[in-house]
Amino acid sequence: MTTSVTETHRAAAPKILVLGATGPTSRHIVSQAVNRGYDVTVLVRSPEKATDLKGAKLVVGDARDEKALRQAIKGRDAVITALGTPASPFREVTLLSTATRALANAMKAEQVSRLIAITGMGAGNSAGHGGFLFDKLIFPLLLRKVYADKNRQEDVIKRSDLDWTIVRPSILNNKPGGNAIRTLTDLNSFHGGSISRADVATFLLDQVTSDAWFGQSPLITS
Q1: Using an 8 Å Cβ cutoff, are 102 and 83 in contact?
Q2: Do 59 and 72 contact (CB within 8 A), yes or no?
Q3: Tens of pLDDT along 155-171?
Q4: Distance in angstroms (rounded) separating the CA atoms of residues 29 and 199
């Protein structure tokens, strides 16, 4: 393990890489990070989709390409991966685990240890805690293959030697941020919930300069 991220960044603004930066939650991550004064790099396949990511440095490349990842990671203090993939009722999904495996290798090669990753409610031991509609209809009909890959993604992260935090948001919405965030590891009494994308971004960025959730997989909800 490395020196505490909090200690590392006490004197300087963090330098972060955001993966999946053109997604709806990631746009909040980038804008909030820039507003905090962070030095932000984003890796994007389609730069034309990232023209509104003001204040961030663009690196063009595929998140599954270890060479492109190393270029984007070089000199960074932390990585936030918010890669997503569409619902896939029939086709197998491998993007998340493949990209995360390449990311872990690239981070080790560039000696960057801090990783914050979004998966989602339904991954790992949070499966079955989404409420009736999510657990009985949405998950089995639309998201089963996506979450199989999220589970593989989490396994890759947990087997790495990185200083990782996995964040599992409840159902995402587009409401304004600034709400109280519940952070749960004991899910026995939890069944369903939602959280704004803006609040997810806030929680993720808070982890860049904190070691409070190192090696843990909290579920977050409003």
Answers
A1: no
A2: yes
A3: 999 999 999 999 999 99
A4: 9
Return the SS3 of 115: strand
- Residue 169 contacts residue 200 (beta carbons within 8 Å): yes
Q: Where are the alpha helices (DSSP H) in the chain?
A: 5-8, 24-35, 66-73, 95-109, 132-133, 144-159, 197-208
Question: Is 0.85 topped by the overall pTM?
Answer: yes
Phi then psi dihedrals of residue 159, to 5 deg:
-85, -10
- DSSP lists the bridge partners of residue 171 as 194
C-alpha 137/C-alpha 142 separation (Å) is: 8
Which domain covers residue 46, as residue numbers? 5-221
**Residue 18: enclosing H or E segment and its boundaries?**
strand 15-19
| CATH code, domain with 48 | 3.40.50.720
| Residue 50 CA: distances (Å) to CA of 19, 46, 53, 134, 193 | 12, 7, 5, 31, 30
Residue 72 structure tokens: 């984007």
Total count of domains within the chain: 1
pLDDT digits (tens, 9 = 90+) for 125-160: 999 999 999 999 999 999 999 999 999 999 999 999
